[in-house]
């Protein structure tokens, strides 16, 4: 819907350009992304009740993992349904308020993920480097505080950007060159200088990512140092395999976020962001259940026990 004011056409609805207009390619991409979405939801939402039902999984590591799965589901739900709908929608329209809601839940999920991944890395550091003090250091109180802190930080971070989005008016093109409503492409459509908004993205997103990355890197460096001191080659191999897969997932997640939101001229170069955004919105939520859970014997055994109960 457009309203004319002071010779400007103020845009309150936008068109999401998406991936392609080629009919056959659209069908193929729809099937691919629908499959990714279904696997993501089953993998992540299946993990949450499993952790709640199994007392053996009521430990800090699995509490963080369950919340990570919940946030990955939130990320998938915020982005994928609208994207799938737009493959066969004629207008591909999204309102400004739908845009804000989509970005709010995405920002909440990604920010909470940053802090949860840092908490998980610290938990592994304490478990491997100080096993005798683990239950004292990683108490239930600290675990709940860290989890609550991740959600509070996610909500505050999202709200800051949403509130400052209201200072902008959109009077240029109403086409967003993306498959979801991210704020960076929106800033390019603003007829008000978005410098303050860009600065806030750089400061807050940068602070969240740098702080959590430092914790992850220090934790994993300490873990690697401890692994190389192990005498057992078999134990060293298992620990290295686990840490390598975890660190790969973390590196892809943080790397894609840093590339999109923190690099210079990120607003002017959003064409490069679509392929990178696929990683942190679709691929990482898909991979996390396999990396953190399905390679874990305790989770697999818990799944087997619950399947036997049902059957």
Explain this structure to me?
Its main location: membrane. The chain crosses the membrane at residues 28-50, 62-81, 101-122, 142-166, 199-227, 239-262, 274-294. Residues 43-292 form the G-protein coupled receptors family 1 profile domain. One of its GO terms (molecular function) is G protein-coupled receptor activity. It comes from Vulpes vulpes (Red fox). This protein is mainly alpha-helical and 311 residues long. The radius of gyration is 21 Å and the shape is globular. It starts with a strand and ends with a helix. The protein has a three-stranded mixed beta sheet with strand order 4-3-5. It has a two-stranded antiparallel sheet with strand order 1-2. Helices cover 72% and strands 5% of the residues. It has helices at 23-53, 60-86, 96-129, 134-137, 140-165, 183-188, 195-228, 233-261, 273-292, 297-310; strands at 2-5, 8-11, 13-16, 93-95, 175-176.
| Anisotropy-based shape | globular
- Strand proportion, as a percent range, falls in 5-15%
Question: Widest sheet: strand order?
Answer: 4-3-5
Q: With helices defined by DSSP (H or I, 4 residues minimum), what is the helix count?
A: 10
Oligomer: single chain
- The end-to-end distance, rounded to whole angstroms, is 54 Å
Q: What can be said about the biggest beta sheet? A: 3 strands, mixed
Radius of gyration: 21 Å
Task: Look at the helices and sheets and give the structural class.
Answer: mainly alpha
- H/E order of the elements? EEEHHEHHHEHHHHH
| Average of pLDDT | 86
């Amino acid at each position: 819907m457009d309203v004319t004011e002071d010779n400007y056409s103020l845009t309150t609805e936008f068109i999401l350009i998406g991936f392609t207009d080629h009919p056959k390619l659209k069908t193929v991409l729809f099937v691919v992304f629908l499959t990714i979405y279904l696997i993501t939801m089953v993998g992540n939402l299946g993990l949450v009740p499993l952790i709640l039902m199994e007392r053996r999984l009521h430990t800090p590591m699995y509490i963080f993992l369950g919340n990570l799965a919940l946030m990955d589901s939130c990320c998938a739900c915020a982005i994928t349904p609208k994207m799938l709908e737009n493959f066969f929608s004629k207008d591909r329209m999204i309102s400004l308020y739908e845009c804000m809601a989509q970005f709010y839940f995405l920002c909440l999920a990604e920010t909470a993920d940053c802090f949860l991944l840092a908490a998980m890395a610290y938990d592994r550091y304490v478990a491997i480097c100080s096993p005798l003090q683990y239950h004292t250091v990683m108490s239930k109180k600290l675990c709940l505080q860290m989890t609550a802190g991740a959600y509070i930080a996610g909500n505050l971070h999202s709200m800051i950007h949403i509130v400052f989005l209201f200072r902008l008016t959109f009077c240029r093109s109403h086409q967003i060159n993306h498959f979801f409503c991210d704020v960076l492409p929106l800033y390019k459509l603003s007829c008000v200088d978005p410098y303050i908004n860009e600065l806030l993205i750089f400061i807050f997103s940068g602070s969240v990512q740098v702080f959590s990355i430092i914790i992850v890197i220090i934790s994993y460096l300490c873990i690697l140092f401890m692994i190389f001191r192990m005498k057992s080659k078999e134990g060293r191999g298992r620990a290295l395999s686990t840490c390598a897969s975890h660190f790969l997932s973390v590196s892809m997640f943080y790397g894609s976020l840093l590339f999109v939101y923190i690099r210079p001229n990120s607003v002017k170069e959003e064409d490069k962001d679509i392929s990178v955004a696929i990683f942190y919105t679709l691929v990482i939520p898909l991979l996390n259940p396999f990396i953190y859970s399905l390679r874990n014997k305790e989770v697999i055994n818990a799944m087997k026990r619950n399947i036997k109960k049902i059957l």
